[in-house]
Amino acid sequence: MIEDLLVAAAGVAAAAAVYAAAAARVVKQYERGIVFRFGRLRDDVRAPGFTMIVPGVDRLHKVNMQIVTMPVPAQEGITRDNVTVRVDAVVYFKVVDAADALIRVEDYKFAVSQMAQTSLRSIIGKSDLDDLLSNREKLNQGLELMLDSPAMGWGVAIDRVEIKDVSLPETMKRSMARQAEADRERRARVINADAELQASKKLAEAAAVMSDQPAALQLRLLQTVVAVAAEKNSTLVLPFPVELLRFLERSTLGAPAAVNEERAVTPTPPPVSDAYLKGAAHAAEGVEPVEDLAGASVEPAPPEEGA
């Protein structure tokens, strides 16, 4: 009798152990347990820790509540300014309602992935190239709003969306590089022109000061000579003042003008020799004075015969 009781007790203990092993479940800290009893959802969500279910009647589904990092495949599209680009992104989301994530959508991860790809293509078509390259924060917020609206019905909350990379065609990259180079060159020329303007103003002020003090120009010349000679060169470059050249030019042009003036005022007669004077005196003695040049004409005498 006692042996039968012991055997029965051992059988009950074994059955209880098997039942406990089949009914015992452990839910991890980052999970939540959803129980379906005969296919119907139980209202109570099993918290982390040890829990029991009815074997053969209940089905326990564990839902991960951690933030999921999902890369979005690169999507190719045409921007609003007709530029073909390839854009890829990453989505961070988590489950906030375990029951809705299991009941309302078949596979919430796949659903979020497809929605992210569709939203990314839509954002590409609505944006300009400059916005994709420089104004990504605004686009990230737009993507987050587009994903968060349907995801909330699935028990999923979008934590954030980030655009990772924007791939451009090689021709567009070269065009942008030329544009940036031209812009940098323009700024460099403007800076150089501004520097030349400021330097010219300072040089004009220095020239005005030196014009008041002639010794300052000589001192500046000596300073230049010292600066050039400090390099121990065999050739010495000596600056020549432009004012001295102008003075020499005025002096050279002024001398012939003075000589010409003097010749115009007092002309010098040509030299006459003594022989010329004596010949002129003898010629004057042999010439008889003519009293009446308007008298009667004298006909020439006829020639003699035999002449």
Q: Mind explaining what this structure looks like?
A:
The protein is of the alpha+beta class and 307 residues long. It has nine helices and eight strands. It is rod-shaped. β6 (68-78) and β7 form a beta hairpin. It has helices at residues 2-23, 98-103, 108-126, 129-134, 136-151, 170-212, 214-229, 242-265, 274-285, and strands spanning 24-27, 31-37, 40-46, 49-52, 58-64, 68-78, 84-95, 156-167. Strands 3-2-5 form a three-stranded antiparallel β-sheet. A three-stranded antiparallel β-sheet has the order 6-7-8. The protein has a two-stranded antiparallel sheet with strand order 1-4. The relative contact order is 0.06.
Q: Could you name the key traits of this structure?
A:
8 strands, alpha+beta, three-stranded antiparallel sheet
Task: Give the helix/strand layout.
Elements lengths: L1 H22 E4 L3 E7 L2 E7 L2 E4 L5 E7 L3 E11 L5 E12 L2 H6 L4 H19 L2 H6 L1 H16 L4 E12 L2 H43 L1 H16 L12 H24 L8 H12 L22
Antiparallel strand pairs: 1-4, 2-3, 2-5, 6-7, 7-8
Helix pairs in contact: 3-5, 6-7
Q: Helicity, in percent?
A: 40-55%
Strand fraction equals 15-25%
The residue-averaged pLDDT reads 79
Strand elements, count? 8
Unreliable residue runs: 290-299
| Rg | 59 Å
Shape: rod-shaped
Q: Note the gap between the termini.
A: 218 Å
| Number of H/I helices | 9
Q: What is the strand arrangement across the widest sheet?
A: 3-2-5
Which sequence of SSEs, written as H and E, runs from N to C?
Answer: HEEEEEEEHHHHEHHHH
Helix/strand/pairing category: alpha+beta
Q: Largest sheet, described in full?
A: 3 strands, antiparallel
